[in-house]
Amino acid sequence: MWATTAMQIYIDADACPVKDEALRVAERHQLVIHYVSNAWMRLPEHPLVRRSIVADGPDAADDWIVERIGAGDIAVTQDIPLAARCLKKGAKAIGNTGRPFTDASIGMALAMRELSQHLRETGESRGLNAAFTRADRSRFLEALEQAVQTIKRGL
After folding, report:
1. Which domain does 131 fall in, by range?
2. Which CATH number does the domain housing residue 128 bear?
3. 26 occurs within a structural domain
4. Cα(139)–Cα(18) distance, integer angstroms
5. Which of 3, 18, 57, 104 has CA atoms 20 to 30 A from the CA of 45?
6. 11 with 36: CB under 8 angstroms?
7. pLDDT above 50 for 11
8. What's the total number of domains in the chain?
9. HEC assignment per residue over 9-56
10. Residue 96 above 80 pLDDT?
11. 75 in any annotated domain
């Protein structure tokens, strides 16, 4: 039960709420899935699962992913700068809520991230995040499946 295609999925696994959903898609398509984190975490024992624990550091997991990801691969992350770096390497990037990052949308996403950070730093915003919902989980599954299908069709 090994991967039949070169496509791989890379999960920015620290605080990722859709690890199990990503594995379901990887299993369906027989894709290797890399869970990258700064600490050990419980993951399913599965021949498609690769666990990578990187050193502590603000961008250690991001750097590990960017060094290995390539065109035809998929990154799952809420980290907008990481998504931008993956897109530059020709990979697809999807947020945990199913939002695909694209070349057309990443500039605005980076700008909004900077604005939000500025508002938090100046005390004008507390930076509260919305709760993760079943609808987010469903959108993620749909977006990941769509990304896999698009890559398989060579689009």
Report:
1. 8-152
2. 3.40.50
3. yes
4. 11
5. 57
6. yes
7. yes
8. 1
9. EEEECCCCCCHHHHHHHHHHHCCEEEEEECCCCCCCCCCCEEEEECCC
10. yes
11. yes
Residue 24 has pLDDT above 90, yes or no: yes
In DSSP terms, which residues pair with 34 in a beta bridge?
10, 50
User: What pTM, to 2 d.p., does this model score?
Assistant: 0.83
Residue 129 reports pLDDT greater than 60: yes
Spatial neighbors of 22 by CB under 8 A, at least 6 apart, are 9, 11, 33, 76, 144
Q: What Å distances lie between residue 70 and 7, 9, 34, 106, 137, CA to CA?
A: 9, 10, 13, 18, 25
Of 12-26, 55-69, 89-103, 126-140, which range is least confident? 126-140
Reported confidence tier of residue 107, pLDDT bands at 50, 70, 90: low
Res. 148: pLDDT tops 90: yes
Q: Which residue has the tokens 């530059």?
A: 88
Distances (CA, A) of 29 to 6, 66, 67, 81, 125: 11, 23, 24, 28, 42
Q: Is residue 3 part of a domain?
A: no
| Residue whose entry in the numeric block shows the structure tokens 């065109």 | 71
Residue owning tokens 């024992």: 45
> What gap in Å lies between CA 44 and CA 64, rounded to an integer?
21
- Beta strand 92-94 pairing with 8-12: unpaired
- Could you tell me if residue 66 is inside a domain? yes
Token code pair at residue 128: 């509260």
